[in-house]
Design brief:
This protein has 453 residues and is an all-alpha fold. 83% of the residues lie in helices and 0% in strands. Helix 1 packs parallel to helix 7, helix 14 packs parallel to helix 17 and helix 15 packs antiparallel against helix 16.
């Protein structure tokens, strides 16, 4: 048992730490954007926040495809079945290119309509115009961002993580420097405001993509497809994989749409709420790095063991990840509570917005352990075990039938403040946690997809 525990923690550190670093880097990129843009004025911060809500819907759809593909990749890697990994990757790449082109074209054609969903014209200043400018530029990064995400997720499934982390690190450094250069204008560069932030983001995403491709093809990983292999799959291959992947995609897409409706509801509270929730979401994502790291590691490790037909060890791993989620969830909540006033001081916003930020972050901290456990259970354990339908039903059901109605009731009917509405929404996290916990305890979620496919 000691050797098994040593193996568990060895794999955990190998997978989770690089993922944590990459997530920290990626999240920091968004925080740096909001801090630098926030120095302009609150309508600029609200504009970027609105554009990022659209990106959020898009990227979670791509994350759904990438997560679904990585479920199969992890199990095939457990069998060392390289030919099937290549077919799976080809389907993932083609799918993400089609989806990202659709979102990019919408952003170019109707940017003002998209921004208008998330901000109201009264009291927001130039948010609509600024958001339109930002969105039309940043949409040029959608295809390469989606490809980077698919290759990153697949790399983790075959236990390659460090180089992906370094690609994200360099991308962050690039984005930070270009933000400094282009937002306010330094070293003779023009002061482009939100347009400068968008240009910096596009360039940084391009750098990240090129570095990932250099690693994948330079090391000749199983993910490095030749030109003829990008279409080297059949209709039956698509049906076989999408019979499970479709629920992951629907899960992420409908969940993202539901969360975006939260943003619409916040818009009815006022300008301060729109700007404050942009900040709070960025900080919450920073603290959710633990959840993302543990869920990625659990998905890979458990998926590999299921592929090896070692169900006993897969269940043991699941229990250990749940314990780690509880421990890190409580530690993260305490840390967030301690540093919230300091975080609020980063942003040059009005005193009302700063108070909204502090109150809302305090509420988020109270429910952080539930949020972290939910990501580990749904994205990591249940999906890796093939329970994509169950994860879909719980994730989407709680958001749409509990969260969305409460968001609009709180903001429009009861006219509550931002932190009070966020507190109401957290009810769905508690219910989701209970349902998923009971499911995992039943030990009936272990499915070998690559044998039954």
């Amino acid at each position: 048992m000691k050797n098994r525990k040593d193996e568990f923690y060895s794999l955990l550190f190998k997978l989770a730490i690089p993922v944590a670093m990459q997530s920290f880097i990626s999240t920091s990129l968004n925080i740096i954007d909001s801090i630098m843009v926030g120095k302009l004025r609150e309508d600029a911060l609200a504009a970027v926040g609105a554009a990022n809500q659209y990106f959020y819907v898009f990227i979670l759809l791509i994350f759904g495809i990438a997560s679904g593909i990585s479920i199969f990749t992890a199990q095939y890697w457990g069998q060392k079945n390289i030919s099937e990994i290549k077919k799976t990757m080809a389907i993932g790449v083609v799918s993400t290119v089609i989806a990202s082109m659709f979102f990019a074209i919408l952003a170019w054609i109707i940017p003002k309509s998209i921004i208008g969903v998330f901000v109201k014209t009264n009291g927001i200043g130039n948010a609509l115009v600024l958001g339109e400018k930002y969105l039309k530029i940043v949409a040029f990064s959608y295809v390469i961002t989606s490809l980077s995400l698919v290759y990153s997720a697949a790399s983790r499934s075959i236990e390659r993580t460090k180089e992906i982390m370094w690609a994200s690190s360099i991308s962050l450094a690039c984005n930070t420097f270009l933000n400094y250069l282009l937002i306010e204008g330094h070293f003779g560069a023009p002061a482009l405001g939100v347009k400068g932030a968008a240009i910096a983001t596009v360039i940084a995403r391009c750098v990240e993509f090129l570095l990932i491709m250099k690693y994948v093809y330079g090391k000749k990983l199983p993910l490095a497809l030749r030109l003829n292999e990008f279409l080297g799959f059949t209709i039956n291959d698509i049906k076989r994989i999408y019979s499970k992947v479709v629920f992951v995609i629907l899960n992420e897409s409908l969940w993202a749409l539901g969360i975006s409706l939260y943003a619409v509801a916040y818009g009815y509270i006022g300008t301060s709420a729109v700007a404050a929730i942009q900040v709070c979401n960025s900080i919450q994502n920073l603290f959710m790095i633990v959840a993302k790291s543990l869920s990625t590691a659990s998905g890979t490790m458990i998926g590999n063991k299921i592929g090896e037909k070692n169900g006993v060890l897969a269940h043991l791993y699941a229990k250990r990840f749940l314990k780690l989620g509880i421990v890190f969830g409580f530690l993260s909540a305490v840390l967030l509570r301690l540093i919230t006033p300091w975080i609020a001081s980063w942003y040059e916003v009005s005193s009302a917005t700063r108070m909204d930020i502090i109150s809302t972050l305090n509420i988020i901290g109270l429910f952080l352990v539930f949020k972290i456990l939910n990501v580990i259970m749904t994205v990591g354990i249940l999906r890796s075990g093939g329970e994509t339908k169950f994860a879909f039903a719980v994730d989407v059901g709680t958001v749409w039938f509990i969260g969305v109605p409460l968001a609009f009731l709180g903001s429009i009917y009861f006219k509550l403040s931002l932190h009070e509405v966020v507190a109401m929404l957290s009810v769905e996290e508690i219910l989701k946690c209970i349902v998923c916990w009971l499911k995992i305890r039943k030990n009936d979620w272990n499915q070998n997809l690559v044998d039954v496919a």
